Each structure stands twice: as structure tokens, then as C-alpha cells.
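Hi U.,

Before I forget, here's the chain from the pilot set. I'm dumping it here mostly so it's searchable later in email.
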Amino acid sequence: MKNLFSAIEKKLNGIIWTLILTGLFLLILGVLIVWTDFVVRLLIGLLVIVVAYVFFYGGIKAWGVKREVEKFLKFFKIK
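Structure:
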């Protein structure tokens, strides 16, 4: 039980740090939008890539949590 919660906590901490760093990156890019049209087009492209990365990363982390929960529940299955 303790291993399950520590694994889930570790994965959630990874997701939290990724979202914080992505938010900081988007904040810096948001400031750069003010200056030029080229930067706006570049930032829109980067925003699409960052959103795709967040969804992909979140999917992988959710799959890892699901795998940990399934492993934990297999331990308690009655034959």
C-alpha cells in the first residue's frame, strides 16, 4: 500500500513540475508576443507543440499511474 502511494506521489510530482515549467515557458513567450509579427507566428506554432507535448506527457503519466494501480489490485485478487 505504501509503495502504491509513493509511486503515485512521485508521478504526480513529475506532472506538477512539468506543468509549472510549461507555464513559466508560456509566460515568457507571452511577453515576447508584444514585439514582432514573426514572433507571434513562431509563438503560435510553439504553443501548439507545447500543448501537444502536455497532452502526450499527461497520457504517459496517467498510463503509469494506471499500471501501478493495476499491479496493486492484482496483489489483492482472490484466486
